[in-house]
Design goal:
- The complex is a heterodimer.
- Chain A is of the alpha+beta class.
- In chain A, 24% of the residues lie in helices and 32% in strands.
- Chain A is built from eight helices and 20 strands.
- In chain A, the strands form four sheets. In chain A, strands 6-7-8-3-9-10 form a six-stranded mixed β-sheet, sandwiched between helices. Chain A has a five-stranded antiparallel β-sheet with strand order 13-12-11-14-20.
- In chain A, helix 2 packs across helix 3, helix 2 runs parallel beside helix 4 and helix 3 crosses helix 4.
- By secondary structure, chain B is mainly α.
- In chain B, 75% of the residues lie in helices and 0% in strands.
- Chain B contains twelve helices and no strands.
- The chains are: A alpha+beta, B mainly alpha.
Chain lengths: 357, 288
């Protein structure tokens, strides 16, 4: 059955003092699609390798269903893993690759044959049993790797950037299939990726990592709508980040160059603060002649536009000199602006998110 | 990835290739020259063997050109000789034992060097490969003196040890070469699927490094079977390897028997290489 994983204050320090992972703590729930997201070198892969048992933590403990497995060797952990570039055994056929884990578990030939057949059918590779990995396409190799990992009914499925080598179309299809399979089998799945769109699209929850630490753990909506740190706001999607001084007990932030931002009522903290405002939360209208309410609007000029199909991304220079990204849906009713147009930007204080530095 | 290949056929690929070609006649001369040089090299390599074969089949008891006929009398003499037969058997025995010990030791050493994170790896590799750089006659002399000092006499295992010393570098070299390109994630995948480290070695590591180990083993066999300088010091009278027996024979007689013995050696080496290839399989693993 699927298991929960508890990572308790785990660090990994390599010879020479490099701290790859620094006091990481997170709870991965049973049956959850959990992503470790971050730029390369953020410690996400090292964390995954410690869960798999390929690396030993320098400090802390890893528990599966409450049992400490920190020092259990990899081959006794009962976890499936899909490797980056798949790591299929080149000297074995597709069927032999999938059968490997079952054979190690000492199952009899008939059972193995049945399970291999079912697993290959599940990933739609029936008929390719006798091929060698080198004779398969990238997408097919990916499926073999997945079948090989799930056929042993692992307690946890670990995926290390499994879709990284596929082209975009195939990648989206595999994202969808993997997610479906995970739900169908009720797998606890730990998914390492540097692709924020992939993480947002697939995960139940995401841990955003940076410099060996966890910046934030949350659902995709929480991560996107309420980033808690500057790094998360910046890493996930496009965003506008402003930094300014908040007067004691004031409800607004002076970010300089004549721009004042009204803060949401529940905003905490005084002194120097950073706030994030997503491009699509800003409304864009033709420049209004009337005076605009300070704190929730500003005038600017369109510098350039980036047509995305379903939406348009505008780069706008405000009167004071701030440069702001604004995204508008390409709806039939809204007018499209061209560079040089004068525009007025409007937003609501509730869409501003206060960040920790 | 392979999938991307499906997009490429529509690309026009020919023009660039055609534009750099030389005009017709020059291209042809270049090609003939290339062929001629290659043929010359092959002749140069094979001529000595051809001379030996001609010598072995020529009925006259001295080297003569052109040969006056074809006869198997030297082969008859070689196979009828108890000395030669004994030496041939002993050479094969030593070569087989040497191959086994050099392969096991060399492959293990290469694995330890490639994976073990040992201090001074480069120094150890250099030491292990040093018998290749020393004249074998020095190695033989040094071993001879060592055995005398240790007062162990000249046992067969002493000869096998000497041969192992000079054949080890081949196995270490070829095994290190395949380990250099080995993707260790394959071993992790095996362990992740429940294979213990020992099981992982036999299920994944060994099958994948086999081409290199086997190539080393073949070198070990041939080098041991042909070995003369080291053997010269370490064989005991009455228990000599074929090259030493041939050398002793040459001191007194020069007839076609030498040629016949050489032809038999060549054929035997060939049989061993082909046999190993067929049974253990050199070509069955594509990824090298």
């Amino acid at each position: 059955m699927s298991a929960s994983i508890e990572i308790a204050g785990v660090s990994k320090v390599y010879d020479g003092g490099v701290r790859a992972v620094d006091a990481v703590a997170m709870d991965i729930r049973q049956g959850e699609f959990f992503s470790l997201l971050g730029p390369s070198g953020c410690g996400k892969t090292t964390t995954l390798r410690m869960i798999a048992g390929f690396e030993t933590p320098s400090a802390g403990a890893i528990r599966v269903d409450g049992a400490d497995i920190t020092h259990v060797p990899a081959h006794k952990r009962d976890m499936g893993m899909v490797f980056q570039n798949y790591a299929l055994f080149p000297h074995r056929t597709v069927a032999e690759n999938v059968a490997f884990g079952l054979r190690m578990r000492g199952l009899d030939k008939a059972t193995i044959a049945t399970k291999v057949k079912a697993a290959l059918a599940m990933v739609e590779l029936s008929g390719l049993e006798d091929r060698r990995p080198a004779q398969l396409s990238g997408g097919q190799q990916q499926r073999v790797a997945l079948a090989r990992a799930i056929v042993i009914a692992p307690r946890v499925l670990l995926c290390d950037e499994p879709l990284g080598a596929l082209d975009k179309k195939l990648r989206q299809q595999m994202q969808f299939e993997l997610k479906q399979l995970q739900k169908k089998l009720g797998l606890t799945l730990v998914f390492v990726t540097h692709d924020q769109e992939e993480a947002l699209a697939m995960s139940d929850r995401i841990a955003v990592m940076n410099g060996g630490r966890v910046e934030q753990v949350g659902t995709p909506t929480e991560i996107y709508n309420q980033p808690t740190t500057r790094f998360v706001a910046d890493f996930i999607g496009d965003t506008n980040i402003f930094r300014g001084e908040r007067a004691a007990a004031g409800q607004s932030l002076d970010v300089g160059k004549g721009l004042i931002l009204a803060l949401p009522t529940e905003a905490q903290g005084t002194g120097v603060l950073s706030v994030a405002l997503r491009p699509e939360k800003i409304r864009l209208i033709p420049r209004a002649d009337a005076a605009t309410p300070a704190g929730t609007s500003a005038h600017g000029i369109v510098e350039n536009t980036n047509f995305l199909g379903g939406a348009v991304l505008y780069r706008i220079t405000l009167e004071g000199g701030h440069r702001v990204l604004v995204q508008q849906p390409n709806a039939g009713t809204s007018r499209l602006f061209v560079p040089g147009n004068g525009v007025t930007l409007q937003w609501t204080p509730a869409d501003l998110v206060v960040l920790k530095d | 990835m392979q999938t991307s290949a499906s997009h490429s056929p529509s690309l026009p690929a020919a023009p660039q290739a055609a534009s750099v070609r030389m005009p017709g006649p020059i291209r042809h001369y270049g090609r003939y020259l290339y062929l001629a040089i290659n043929i010359a090299i092959i002749i140069f390599l094979l001529a000595p063997i051809a001379i030996v074969v001609v010598f072995a089949l020529n009925p006259t008891p001295f080297i003569q050109f052109p040969p006056v006929g074809v006869s198997l009398r030297w082969f008859e003499k070689f196979f009828a000789s108890r000395d030669f037969m004994h030496a041939l058997g002993f050479s094969l025995e030593v070569a087989v034992l040497t191959t086994l010990s050099a392969t096991v030791l060399g492959a293990s050493a290469a694995l330890a060097l490639a994976r073990g994170n040992l201090p001074g790896t480069r120094l150890i590799v250099a030491t292990m490969l040093s018998p290749l750089m020393l004249p074998a006659i020095l190695t033989g002399l040094a071993l001879f003196q060592t055995y005398v000092l240790l007062d162990v006499g000249r046992p067969t295992w002493g000869l096998v040890a000497g041969h192992t010393l000079v054949t080890l570098p081949y196995v270490v070299r070829t095994t290190l070469a395949v380990l250099h390109n080995f993707d260790t994630r394959l071993e992790e995948a095996a362990q992740n699927l429940g294979a213990s480290p020992v099981r992982t070695f036999f299920e994944v590591t060994l099958p994948l490094i086999k081409p290199g180990v086997l190539a080393g083993a073949i070198f070990a066999f041939i080098v041991s079977f042909d070995q003369f300088p080291v053997s010269l010091f370490l064989v005991s009278p009455g228990n000599e390897t074929l090259p030493v027996t041939l050398f002793n024979y040459l001191k007194f007689d020069l007839d076609g028997t030498i040629g016949a013995a050489s032809v038999v050696s060549i054929v035997l080496a060939f049989v061993v290489v082909i046999g190993l290839d067929r049974t253990v399989g050199l070509r069955s693993y594509v990824k090298l």
